Amino acid sequence: MCQCAPVFLRRSSAALLDLQWPMLIRFEAIHHELNKATAQNKDLQWEMELLQSELTELRTMQVKTEKESEKYKEERDAVYSEYKLIMSERDQVISELDKLQTEVELAESKLKSSTCEKKAASEGVEALRQDTIGDTGYFTKALTGMSYMTRLLL
User: Fold this and answer.
1) For residue 5, which of 1, 29, 35, 38 is within the disulfide window of CB 3.0 to 4.6 Å?
2) Which helix (H) or strand (E) holds 36?
3) Alpha-carbon distance 114 to 88, whole Å?
4) Rounded mean pLDDT of the chain?
5) Dmax over Cα atoms in the chain, in whole Å?
6) How far apart are CA 133 and CA 124, in angstroms?
7) Is the model more confident about 121 or about 109?
8) What is the rounded distance in angstroms from the CA atom of residue 79 to the CA atom of residue 90?
9) What is the rounded CA–CA span in Å between residue 132 and residue 66?
10) In whole angstroms, how far apart are CA 55 and each of 47, 50, 117?
């Protein structure tokens, strides 16, 4: 080859480099952007893994909370049922107390009535006794008088 070939090659390499230089700069910029995007992607993947971990933890907590909530609902329902039973029993006791109070009042009324009757009967017995005592004296006098008259007649 001739001596002009290396000069030509240098010129054509320089011309080629001049033509490709903007592409190389663009390639470098794109490569830099790609590295930057890759780093961001890694950061986002790490953040996504962290968020997925938090999500798993929150779902576990949600399941646990739902179970506890169901347990508390059952306890609340049991307490409410027991409360209703106690209130029903209380109402029955109040009803029985009212019934017993009425019976006591009736018994007191009967007792008062029988006491009054007893007092009246006692007073009647006393009056009869007084009458009997009075009548006995009169009867005794009458018998004595009859005896005397029978003796006279005999």
Assistant:
1) 1
2) helix 4-153
3) 38
4) 84
5) 214
6) 14
7) 109
8) 16
9) 95
10) 12, 9, 90
Please name the residue that has the structure tokens 């109402």.
91
Q: pLDDT (tens digit, 9 = 90+) per residue, 49-90?
A: 999 999 999 999 999 999 999 999 999 999 999 999 999 999
Tokens of 117: 């009757």
Report the share of the chain in percent with pLDDT over 90: 51
**Residue 3 DSSP SS3:** coil
- Predicted pLDDT at 124: 78
Which amino acid belongs to residue 116?
Answer: C
Centre a 10 Å sphere on the Cβ of residue 20 and count the other Cβ atoms it contains. Answer: 13
In the block, residue with structure tokens 């320089």: 14
pLDDT at position 3, please? 55
- State the distance between the two ends of the chain, measured CA to CA, in whole angstroms: 213
Look-up of token digits 């004595």: 144
pLDDT at 8 over 60: no
CA dihedral for 73, 74, 77, 82, sign (positive or negative): negative
Residue the block writes with tokens 């949600």: 62
